[in-house]
Amino acid sequence: MSIEAKLLHLQAIHNLLAPYRYLYCVDLEATCDEVGESESPRPLAVVADQMETIEIGLVVIDLETLEIVDEFQRFVRPLINPTLTDFCLKLTSIEQADVDGARTCQEVGEELRMFSVRYPNAAWASWGDYDARQLERDAGFTGCPSMLEGLPHFNARKWHAGLYDNQPKGLKQTVESMGLNWKGTYHRGIDDARNVASIVKEMLG
Ligand code: AMP
Ligand code: MG
């Protein structure tokens, strides 16, 4: 890809973000299951369309300064599958006690709305489209509005693909490929969100 094409792509991203003062970089963890190679075949304890959010991590970037100005993190108590699978515990390093003591998706949504009053005129971004689909799924289960209802969503992975023409990679690999330092524990919502924010700052800066 030519330098000109990259600059045009970067300009297009800046244009998309121009109406907004804040960008929320968001990462969700959710209930999940997978049958390991050493296991005998069994039905999944959590099927894809029943995944529920168990953690939301959100990092606020002020688009005027490109500085991180705040964070929001909550565990969320799943209602359909309240017991986390061994696969999920291992993948996310979230503990059963973290979700047992947490508020529901609806309650956390209320807390997030109160938090976001301080950062109005915002859009949100995540690595891929999974998080946006998961918020819709949660909203479908609870019958409540999505936790980020009304805020436009951007796929930071698509932005990255347009600026660095390489194979699509996972979040951690991408951070490392950009020469940035990975921070925290992979597959923890708040840490993933911090790393998405690092990528976004690097792309926009
Ligand atoms: P991530 O943001 O990459 O940590 O993933 C978000 C959620 O997607 C996780 O909390 C899991 O519910 C699900 N997930 C991620 N990777 C896998 C995987 N390899 N197998 C099954 N589910 C996964
Ligand atoms: Mg994650």
Give the proportion of residues in helices: 40-55%
The CATH superfamily bears the name: Ribonuclease H-like superfamily/Ribonuclease H
Succession of helices and strands? HEEEHHHEHEHHH
Query: Which structural class fits the helix and strand makeup?
Result: alpha/beta
What is the domain tally? Answer: 1
Quick one: biggest sheet?
5 strands, mixed
What kind of assembly state do the chains in view correspond to?
A: single chain
Average pLDDT metric: 97
In the sheet with the most strands, the strands line up as: 3-2-1-4-5
Categorize the overall geometry: globular
CATH class: Alpha Beta
- Count of helix runs: 8
Taking pLDDT < 50 over at least 5 consecutive residues as the criterion, the unreliable ranges are: none
Beta percentage is 15-25%
Q: What can you tell me about this protein's structure?
A:
The chain has a single domain, classed as 2-Layer Sandwich (Nucleotidyltransferase, domain 5). It is 40% helix and 18% strand. Strands 3-2-1-4-5 form a 5-stranded mixed beta sheet. A hairpin with a 4-residue loop joins strand 2 and strand 3. Helix 6 runs parallel beside helix 8 and helix 7 runs parallel beside helix 8. The longest helix is centred in the last third of the chain and has 16 residues. The two termini are 20 Å apart. The mean pLDDT is 97. The structure holds adenosine monophosphate and magnesium ion. The site of adenosine monophosphate has 10 residues, from strand 1 and helix 2.
How are the secondary structure elements laid out?
Elements: H1 3-17, E1 22-30, E2 53-62, E3 67-75, H2 86-92, H3 96-100, H4 105-116, E4 122-126, H5 130-142, E5 153-155, H6 156-163, H7 171-177, H8 189-204
Parallel strand pairs: 1-4, 4-5
Antiparallel strand pairs: 1-2, 2-3
The structure holds adenosine monophosphate and magnesium ion.
